[in-house]
Design a protein that fits this description.
Subcellular location: Nucleus, Nucleolus
Pfam family, one: UTP25_NTPase-like
Largest sheet: 8 strands, mixed
Number of helices: 30
InterPro entries: P-loop_NTPase, UTP25, UTP25_C, UTP25_NTPase-like
Helix content: 40-55%
Family: Belongs to the UTP25 family.
Structural class: alpha/beta
Keywords: Nucleus
Strand content: 5-15%
């Protein structure tokens, strides 16, 4: 039996040489005599075990120790005891020895356990050949091994104790983990009473500091009253609750889709994004002017000679406002002028020309007949759809008709941008002015669907492309994220619409426009089954030819109107009717006024069996069609209120006394891919039932009369 070596003595290199050796005859003899391995041998074994790169759990540690010390079960238990794996193993081992050796060995084990555990920690830093008792080098490994870091901190906290058992380590890990566990944070925390009251009573937008230029803030209230017709002077407020909420989002430079725009709040919304746009332009201009001054004066300050001032893009235009008609552009400019006006009158260049080209004078004379309220609100003033104009903003002036590369704000329609962007191969195309747009605003985006959505997609395809020319830019002032091609990630996009766009997820709950149908009318909804969205158009066409058209070709089904939202579907049906020599007339948005008048007369006088009618024509003209007896919605309308408008046309006051309403019918074709449109028409609950029901045909009867 060899002489015991006092703990902590002896060269570290000699201890490391024994790490990979098996139990020798001397070690076996010592084990038989004392019932445990020599402390020096145990320390080496622990170091050999704990010197690993990856942290292992307790089960893996047991398997590893069992494979390396499988010659005898007692050393295996002793190893577990020395590393603190099981508190009961130490008790079992002590019962096997006699009372005298038990007392002596237990004392030695307790001493060795504490030191060996420190040695195990120090073994992680053994690459630096530090002594096992040196604990100053633990921090480096703690930053890499998160599990070990928790264990080491636990050892440091309980350094006065002789040993740390495995159960205590596990509990420490659990306690530390619970502090950052999202489950505990959410469910094991009591909300303060004031927070609960604030959440319960929150019924409107919160008012926040606007953080706009003082010059603009002074004119907000006056502009709201004068331009928007909103009285917000009560209580000293300058914005309505809706405007406060929207501006809080806009001023934080968050992207926004607001699908609740109506003809009653359009001017309120318009003021909000105009305020945000001109505030952004003026802040950018102030920063550029301040940096210009520093650059001129830095020749006298050697400390700032190498400092860069990057505050610009590759081109000057920063704000792009896309609106459908000239009247909207006219209203935007009027609001901008009002916001920039102070006690001194703001100087506006080319104001007379702008009023003659964009003003409302003489454009309301063409309106004939009674139209719905939303139609009168949308198609007021100048309704031309082809325009674009640049605006340059300064502290006391607003220049209209600025060249694009000298403008801060561009106001244009999708068609106006499409003509200047051009197509592939055009010689005179230009889109460099779109390379550094920082704020994109699309107002009345639902109208773009009725105009031509391809123009909008074409616009997005040419945003933030690399300019083909320099356009006089100072590259030393261009922001680094612009040079890196990251401008699209910094752009703020604001979209305002009166409906949920089909490309977006449907989230709101709908009551359904079917409730606005006043005529007594049975409405048959046919759910067509389609495997994928790409084949929906073909599936709809085949279903119409096989199931719907044969029933409506009967003699008693004359004067049937087919409502078609898509122009491509309209052309497809028109060509089929011509090929099959079916009695029909058709009117669309491209037809002449004379052709439309002739088709309406033939249909009303029963000379034509069918009338093909496009949604875009109804959007722009809102005809009061006469002689309708049956309606087929080839596809659900984009605007839900168009459904009730068309159904109510069946109640013709001129024939109601002669013809019973029992002969009127309405047929609708829909699919699961039009869930948002269906919910807009029939309501959320009915739409849910129709889409999940096993039946393919559903009937609703509106306008029941006593």
């Amino acid at each position: 039996m060899g002489k015991r070596r006092p703990h902590g003595r002896g060269p570290p290199g000699k201890r490391r040489r024994n790490e990979s050796q098996d139990l020798s005859a001397r070690q076996k003899k010592h084990l038989k005599a004392f019932g445990e391995a020599h402390p020096a041998d145990i320390r080496d074994a622990v170091k050999n075990y704990t010197k690993v790169d990856d942290v292992q759990d307790e089960k893996q540690q047991e398997e590893y120790s069992s494979s390396s010390e499988s010659e005898d079960e007692d050393p295996y238990k002793q190893l577990l005891a020395t590393i603190g794996a099981d508190g009961t193993a130490e008790k079992e081992l002590s019962e096997e020895d006699d009372s005298s050796s038990d007392t002596r060995d237990t004392t030695e084990d307790e001493t060795d356990d504490g030191s060996d555990d420190e040695g195990a920690v120090a073994a992680l830093d053994s690459n630096d050949d530090n002594d096992s008792d040196d604990s100053s080098g633990r921090d480096e490994d703690d930053t890499v091994r998160g599990v070990d870091k928790r264990r080491h901190s636990s050892n440091a906290e309980h350094s006065d104790s002789s040993s740390v058992c495995g159960g205590e380590v596990t509990d420490g890990k659990a306690e530390n983990g619970d502090d950052a566990d999202p489950f505990s944070i959410h469910f094991e925390r009591d909300l303060p009473e004031d927070v609960v009251e604030r959440l319960s009573s929150k019924s409107q937008w919160e008012k926040e500091d606007t953080k706009v230029k003082h010059k603009l803030a002074d004119q907000v209230a006056a502009t709201n009253v004068k331009q928007c017709g909103v009285n917000v002077l009560n209580g000293g407020d300058v914005l309505t609750p809706l405007q406060y909420g929207l501006f809080g989002i806009l001023n934080n430079y968050q992207d926004l889709l607001y699908p609740r725009e109506t003809f009653s709040n359009t001017e309120e919304i318009r003021l909000v994004y105009c305020l945000h746009a001109v505030n952004h332009v003026l802040k950018t201009r102030s920063r550029v002017m301040a940096h210009n001054t520093k650059i001129r004066d830095r020749s006298n300050a050697s400390s700032d000679a190498d400092k860069e001032y990057r505050d610009q893009g590759l081109t000057r235009p920063k704000v792009l406002m896309v609106v459908p008609m000239r009247h909207a552009a006219y209203r935007i400019v009027q609001i901008l002028i009002s916001l920039l006006s102070t006690s001194d009158q703001v100087m506006v260049s080319n104001r007379k020309r702008f009023k003659s080209e964009y003003g409302d004078a003489g454009h309301d004379d063409d309106k004939k007949g009674l139209k719905p309220e939303d139609y009168d609100a949308l198609f007021t003033g100048n309704t031309d759809e082809h325009f674009r104009i640049g605006l340059s903003v300064s502290k006391k002036s607003l220049r209209l008709y600025s060249p694009f590369y000298m403008a801060d704000i561009i106001i244009a329609s999708p068609l106006g941008l499409r003509t200047v962007i051009g197509a592939q191969g055009d010689r005179d195309r230009d889109y460099d002015f779109l390379s550094s747009i920082e704020l994109l605003i699309m107002d009345q985006a639902d109208v773009f669907l009725m105009q031509n959505w391809d123009h909008v997609l074409h616009l997005f395809d040419h945003l933030h492309l690399q300019p083909r020319q320099g356009h006089g830019v100072d590259f030393s002032r261009v922001r680094m994220w612009t040079l890196n091609g990251w401008s699209k990630h910094y752009r703020q996009t604001l979209i305002f619409s009166s409906i949920i766009l089909p490309e977006l997820v449907h989230r709101k709950s709908c009551k359904g426009s079917v409730c606005q149908v006043v005529v007594q009318l049975p409405q048959m909804f046919h759910n067509i089954k389609c495997t994928d969205f790409q084949s929906l158009a073909d599936t709809r066409f085949e279903f119409f030819l096989k199931e719907v058209l044969p029933l409506h070709r009967e003699k008693d089904m004359k004067q049937t109107l087919i409502y078609i939202p898509s122009y491509f579907d309209f052309v497809r049906l028109r060509n089929y009717f011509k090929k099959e020599v079916i009695s029909f007339v058709h009117i669309n948005e491209y037809a002449s006024s004379k052709g439309i008048r002739r088709a309406r007369i033939e249909f009303r006088r029963r000379r034509a069996h069918f009338l093909l009618y496009t949604e875009r024509l109804h959007f722009y003209r809102r005809f009061k069609l006469r002689g309708l007896k049956h309606i087929i919605f080839y596809e659900l309308p984009q605007y839900a209120h168009f459904y009730s408008e068309m159904c109510n046309l069946l109640e013709d006051p001129g024939r109601i006394s002669a013809i019973s309403t029992d002969t009127l019918t309405c047929t609708v074709i829909f699919s699961k891919y039009e869930a948002h449109k269906l919910a807009e028409v029939v309501g959320t609950e009915r739409a849910k039932h129709m889409l999940t029901s096993d039946r393919d045909v559903h009937m609703l009867i509106s306008g029941d009369r006593e």
